[in-house]
Amino acid sequence: MSRKLLSVLLALSMVFCMFAFAACSEKKEEGGDKDKANEDIKIGAILLGDENEGYTFAHIDGIQKAAKALNLKEDQIVWRYNVPENENCYDAAMELVDAGCDVIFSNSFGHQTFMQQAATEVPEVTFVAMTGDTAVSSGLDNLCNAFTKVYESRYVSGVVAGMKLAELVKEEKLTDKNYDADGNILIGYVGAYPYAEVVSGYTAFFLGIQSVVENVAMQVQFTNEWFNITKESEAANMLMASGCVIIGQHADSTGAPSAVQAAHEKGTVAYSVGYNIDMQSVAPDVALTSATNNWAVYYEYAISTLQKGEKLPQNWAEGYEKDAVKITELGSVCAEGTAEKVEEVVAAIKAGELHVFDTAKFTVKGEKVDSCVIDLNNNFETTDPEDKEAIWDGYFHESELRSAPSFALDIDGITKLNAD
Amino acid sequence: MQSKAETISAKKKYREPLARIAKRDAMPVLLSWGIRAAAVLLSLIVSAVVIYSITTMNPLKVYGAMFEGAFGSQRKIWITVRDTMSLLCIGIALAPAFKMRFWNIGAEGQVLVGGIATAACMIYLGDVLPTYALFIVMIVSSCLAGALWGAIPALFKSRWGTNETLFTLMMNYVAIQITSYCVALWENPYGSNYVGIINPRTKAGWFPEVFGKQYMLNVIIVLTLAVGMFIYLRSTKHGYEISVVGQSENTARYAGINVGKVFVRTMLISGAVAGLTGFIAVSGSSHTISVNTAGGRGFTAIIVAWMAKFNTLTMMLISLLLIFLEKGANEIASNFGLNDFASQIITGIILFFIIGSEFFINYRIIWRKKIREAV
Predict the structure, then answer these.
(1) How far is B274 from B297, CA to CA, in rounded Å?
(2) Which of chain B's residues have a Cβ under 8 Å away from the Cβ of A82?
(3) Between chains, do B193 and A224 touch, taking CB under 8 Å as contact?
(4) Cα first-last separation, chain A
(5) What is the pTM of this model?
(6) Between the CA of residue B15 and those of B1, B4, B9, B295, B368, what are the distances in Å?
(7) CA distances from B6 to A335, B17, B92, B135 (A)
(8) By the CB < 8 Å criterion, does B132 face chain A?
(9) Which of B33, B283, B288 to mutate to test the interface with A (most CBs of A within 10 A)?
(10) Contact across the interface for A195 and B188, Cβ inside 8 Å
(11) Would you call A229 exposed, middle or buried from its count of C-beta atoms within 10 A (0-12, 13-18, 19+)?
(12) Chain A neighbours among B 296-355 (CB < 8 Å)?
């Protein structure tokens, strides 16, 4: 009996302690100074992973480079690693507000709804949901979205893959297995989720390949997860088993390139195009290049804008023109002349002569597309006055009406293997 | 036994083991808590050695940061309290099931279906019903969903003797798939694969602030449940039946207890409380639903229930300890650039010592020399 009593007492005393503590520290936190000099800007970073995950590493790197360029001190940045896409993100955002942050960045799409909640409650702090899409439609002016025009670098990485394909055809390295019934060379793509961000990416990649080798067909396998080494490697193996020669990816792990490397060692002809980070360390014999973002461009722009006391634009998207995207160093297995070709394509994109989603270059169900209204107020429909036509001047204006990708057309030549 | 041992030793030279273990008689309460405290202290020392040898950082600073992570500000305290309550609530749900030795590994799924029911009410009825009616519907539907999820395996066990461990485990995966389906059905914005925060503007179906505190209602509900379950298990006929079935099904049958009925009835309660945890998670904390709504707590709560020996009041302490370790681990991961794995090592060491200390409370070690003296 006394043992029972003791446990009850302990439990109760614990609860009381907690409340007492809560009451004490309540007073301590009142009265922060909101009118501080702009040089003392404090930045909060909410990150889905840590430095061991390629996508997050690229963000960490971007923030650190921006901080260096703007001479920020270490204690001006508060990091939150491994924040899942649930209420922990809201908790983290509010804790960063408590810590005195003036601007808070989150790096994953799923963080957005929780950032929006925090933004509603704390109007004096700027919240940036990177890769998000609801800043304007939320009606909050302290919620912003930013993305790079990564489809441009995916297109260029497609060109690199196309050059390799052309070389393989010339050297007669491909077998019947690598062609479909219509005589198209098979390409595989490991995608995370079947939504616009991924669709826009693989379509750009496909069009990049097609600009070099016309007879190609692409199969896309979704993993429904951003980072899963096993699933991504299984997807790559499945695609290679059905004859795919190039394996592209829009998922964050090294699973696919590693699988391609392993298959290559067993004699399969297949090459990999990665994402976020240089894959040569895990796939030295098959990695051609990786499409990647240079987030530092945005972070430096955003932080310096706020330091000047100005407001951030709610949608920001830049590409090659501002060096916000790039491809990683070309692998040693790349075809001859790739570097020159890449230079030429990048120059054409920068000059505005080459548009990735040129409507003359793709068809949907056999027909050219002349009109595509995109949903800008996130209500599932494209008939509202806020929604706008994205095709004019002969190309789809990706990431111009809002920063998040919105190209979601299923163009001919691409087959989704496992989406609805 | 004695005579058998003697015959063996007579035939060939009997080698005594270095140590034997024997069950202890009940230990004074103060001493047993003293042993537990010593275990915690010892685990902190061992962790300190590990921290220092891996990172050469001052372990005291690391412990300070852990405390800071869980209790460093009023908001952090409330987050710790909120998460403690949610873990505790699942522990409360598991208590009656485990007490009757019914291996309910399915709390994760029971929480999820409760969460789905709540989210469905918030989405479809949020603008239709007045607040009080909405809450009644949410509570009833989440309890029913959880109870159904818990009772199905119990029904099969009582009728056809199926294995409840596998059955409840499999029900988790069914629940996860149903959740994925609902997420795709309710996704917002369209095509995003996330439900997003439900009713962000109207806050319909959100827990109201009580005494000016956002999570006070969570605390009130869960503490009431803890006390209620404590009384139910200790002082009611049902509780007695559960305990008899747990000790021995045959004895229970001999005593005229309808074992199958007790299984189903208890799992209805267990599932309903787990379903209610889903309600608290969706309505009172995350305001959204995803496959991570239960977040593995359905499994962590099994540790809570066993460490507390099904005493729902002791569970408060254990839940708080586990959540404290979780929050502390996150904090040191952020502050010291240690990644999650390093902090999980510390959590592992501390749990190992605490669970290990139960051995020394229940058993004593008799060394070889002592046996000779005894003989």
Answers:
(1) 11
(2) 330, 333, 339-340
(3) yes
(4) 60
(5) 0.77
(6) 16, 14, 8, 51, 10
(7) 84, 15, 50, 71
(8) no
(9) B288
(10) no
(11) middle
(12) 311, 313-314, 316-317, 320, 330, 333-334, 339-340
Question: Among the CATH numbers 1.10.3470, 3.30.70, 1.20.1260, 1.10.150, which is that of B73-335?
Answer: 1.10.3470
CB pairs under 8 A between A and B: 109
The Cα–Cα gap between B84 and B78 comes to 10
pLDDT of residue B95: 92
Which residues 6+ apart lie within 8 Å of B336 measured at CB?
A: B55, B57, B62, B65
Judging contacts by C-beta atoms under 8 Å, the chain A residues touching residue B181 are none
Helix residue ranges per DSSP H, chain B? 2-11, 29-55, 59-71, 74-99, 107-125, 131-160, 164-186, 216-235, 237-247, 249-254, 259-281, 297-307, 314-335, 340-362, 368-374
Q: Which domains does chain A have, with CATH numbers?
A: 150-416 (3.40.50.2300)
Classify A45 as helix, strand or coil. Answer: strand
CB-nearest to B191 from A87, A91, A196 is: A196
- Give A-chain residues touching B194 at CB under 8 angstroms: 85, 109-110, 113
Contact list in A for residue B291 (CB cut-off 8 A) is none
> Phi and psi dihedrals of B16, rounded to 5?
-75, 140
Task: Give the number of residues written for chain B.
Answer: 375
Measuring CA to CA, how many Å separate A246 from each of A234, A239, B250? Answer: 15, 9, 64
Question: What does the alpha-carbon distance between residue A276 and residue A295 come to, in Å, rounded to a whole number?
Answer: 11
Residue A1 has what pLDDT? 46
Q: What is the DSSP letter of A313?
A: P
Q: Is the dihedral of CA A112, A115, A119, A120 positive or negative?
A: positive
pLDDT in tens, B72-122: 888 889 999 999 999 999 999 999 999 999 898 999 999 999 999 999 999
Q: How far apart are CA B313 and CA A376, in angstroms?
A: 52
Handedness of CA A105, A110, A114, A119 (dihedral sign): positive
| Six token digits for residue A374 | 């995109």
Domain boundaries, chain B: 30-57+340-367, 73-335
Mark yes or no for CB contact A11/B317 under 8 Å: yes
**Mean pLDDT, each 10-residue run in order, chain A (420 residues):** 56 56 44 51 90 85 91 88 87 90 91 91 92 85 91 95 94 90 93 88 95 94 88 94 93 90 92 90 92 91 89 89 91 92 93 90 89 75 76 88 87 84
**Burial (0-12, 13-18, 19+ Cβ within 10 Å), A380:** exposed
- Burial label for A51, CB within 10 Å (0-12, 13-18, 19+), is middle
Neighbours of A137 (CB within 10 A): 18
B188/A378 CB distance under 8 A? yes
List, run by run, the mean pLDDT of 10-residue segments along chain B (375 residues). 53 70 80 86 88 80 84 87 93 92 91 94 87 91 94 92 90 92 81 78 83 87 93 91 88 87 92 94 90 86 87 89 85 72 80 86 77 53
Indicate the residue of B81, B287, B313 with minimum beta-carbon distance to A11: B313
| Alpha carbon of B261: minimum distance to chain A alpha carbons (Å) | 29
- Is B203 near chain A, with CB under 8 Å? no
Among partner residues B193, B194, B333, which is closest to A113 by beta-carbon distance?
A: B194
B293 touches chain A (CB under 8 A): yes
